[in-house]
Amino acid sequence: MSMVVLHDYWRSSASYRVRIALALKGVAYDQVEHDLRTGAQRQPDYLALAPHGLVPALEVDGMVLIESPAILEWIEARWPRPPLLPADPFEAATVRAMAALIACDIHPIANLRVLDRLRGEFGASDAQVRDWIVHWITQGFAALEPLIARHGGLFAFGDAPTLADCYLVPQVYNAERFGVDLVAHPRLRTVAAAAATLPAFARAHPQAQPGAAA
Questions:
Q1: Is residue 46 part of a domain?
Q2: Residue 187 neighbours by CB distance under 10 Å
Q3: Do 74 and 103 share a domain, yes or no?
Q4: Is the pLDDT of residue 141 over 80?
């Protein structure tokens, strides 16, 4: 049995993705929290594990993996059941593309360090930062909605959770935090509601994590 340790922060959407995948696979793991609000991810002991100073990082039997897309692909290869990627190469690429809309086009420009720079270096107000977040989430969801309509069933691709849902559900959580209007995205909302009924998604939810704010 592998010893699995997830370094995360309860409200990190990238960590949330990994928690969902591990829960769907039924993989037991220990958690080490690094509070991003206090800069714990930049402490020397953590940087020795994860030189980029970000969460999540996954320790497995003395090895360390960083960056959630790489971690999720490794989890899929290491624990292939239940599958989070379709067997068909075109369908698998479609799921990866849906995930990349979030991982590449939304998340990197609306994460904490970008928002801190907008505030600190460019003097953006809280209202301007919120507008920035809402703009990029809305743009990304506008592209994702027709893909879900084309390929989705109960979930973003078909009727079982895939890697696309591991990315989508945390991004919906972020959207709701910042008051993004999701009325124009009915399929996306339906998928998030379906995921909320599954125990694996409930276990991975930020409010179910150690250190979560009351």
A1: yes
A2: 16
A3: no
A4: yes
Whole-angstrom distance, CA of residue 159 vs CA of residue 89: 18
Same domain flag for 26 and 102? no
154 closest CA partner among 195, 114, 198: 195
Q: Please report the pLDDT score of residue 69 as a whole number.
A: 97
Q: What is the pLDDT of residues 116-125, one digit of tens each?
A: 899 999 999 9
- pLDDT of 139 > 70? The answer is yes
**Backbone φ and ψ of 65, nearest 5°:** -115, 140
- The 8-class DSSP code of residue 12 comes to -
What secondary structure does DSSP assign to 115-173, as a single string? HHHHHHTT---HHHHHHHHHHHHHHHHHHHHHHHHHHBSSSSSBTS--HHHHHHHHHHH
Q: What is the CATH number of the domain that holds 167?
A: 1.20.1050.10
Q: For 65-106, how does the pLDDT look when each residue is reduced to its tens digit (9 = 90+)?
A: 999 999 999 999 999 999 999 999 999 999 999 999 999 999
Euclidean distance between CA atoms 99 and 47, whole angstroms:
27
What's the average model confidence in pLDDT over 2-18? Answer: 94
